[in-house]
């Protein structure tokens, strides 16, 4: 895999409840448009469970493998280990970071959601590889999202000298993505901007263009 910061540029997150058409079609289009990493997040109303969830995860993992895109599993450490996923993403309400690091091993990617400097320090020392910070903008995708804080925490962590890769999340679109990277994030993570787009391919392309505009 390329370095993690590069891989996090356009981070697509999706599960079947987010899709207006077949999840495999949405993911294939998103990858064709340039997403650089994928998180399987099977959560919310009508989310699949058991064998159906497992089968969808395998199908999406195989698409990611074919295109050499890291496949990350949200929350479900058991599933990630069973599938040999490239990594997991956990939040503050999930298993402790050090426990998850121990379970998945040193060679897997471990993403952690942080909302304060203290959470960032703890996650870093417990073995996080990157931070997810949000919600940057209003989102209706996550019912239990914290209050919107814009890019403030990203800026604070960079000012304090944190060099760990960071992605912003929550309400990010191709119109506001550049501001997140300008604030110090390595990339942007999105659900709706790609999964609900008429063309997930064009949506991914626009996000990537706008993220890359900020660099260099
Ligand atoms: C890249 C990224 N950042 C943040 C999150 C949110 O994780 P969490 O707070 O655990 O909430 P759920 O996604 O589990 O509802 C994420 N999934 N990915
Ligand atoms: C999964 C998730 N986590 C968030 C956080 O703030 O940690 S916001 C969020 C939902 C992101 O979806 P959309 O791109 O549709 O706004
Ligand atoms: Mg979680």
UniProtKB/TrEMBL annotation:
EC number(s): the record gives 2.5.1.3
**GO molecular function annotations of the record:** magnesium ion binding; thiamine-phosphate diphosphorylase activity
How many cofactors are bound and how?
A: Binds 1 Mg(2+) ion per subunit.
Q: Highest taxon of the source?
A: Bacteria
Binding positions for 2-[(2R,5Z)-2-carboxy-4-methylthiazol-5(2H)-ylidene]ethyl phosphate per the UniProt entry:
139-141, 171, 191-192
Which pathway does this polypeptide act in? Answer: Cofactor biosynthesis; thiamine diphosphate biosynthesis; thiamine phosphate from 4-amino-2-methyl-5-diphosphomethylpyrimidine and 4-methyl-5-(2-phosphoethyl)-thiazole: step 1/1
Q: Which reaction does it catalyse?
A: 2-[(2R,5Z)-2-carboxy-4-methylthiazol-5(2H)-ylidene]ethyl phosphate + 4-amino-2-methyl-5-(diphosphooxymethyl)pyrimidine + 2 H(+) = thiamine phosphate + CO2 + diphosphate; 2-(2-carboxy-4-methylthiazol-5-yl)ethyl phosphate + 4-amino-2-methyl-5-(diphosphooxymethyl)pyrimidine + 2 H(+) = thiamine phosphate + CO2 + diphosphate; 4-methyl-5-(2-phosphooxyethyl)-thiazole + 4-amino-2-methyl-5-(diphosphooxymethyl)pyrimidine + H(+) = thiamine phosphate + diphosphate
Carries keyword S-adenosyl-L-methionine?
A: no
- Write out the function statement from the record: Condenses 4-methyl-5-(beta-hydroxyethyl)thiazole monophosphate (THZ-P) and 2-methyl-4-amino-5-hydroxymethyl pyrimidine pyrophosphate (HMP-PP) to form thiamine monophosphate (TMP).
**Protein name as it appears in the record:** Thiamine-phosphate synthase
Q: What is the lineage of its organism?
A: Bacteria, Bacillati, Bacillota, Bacilli, Bacillales
Gene this chain is encoded by: thiE
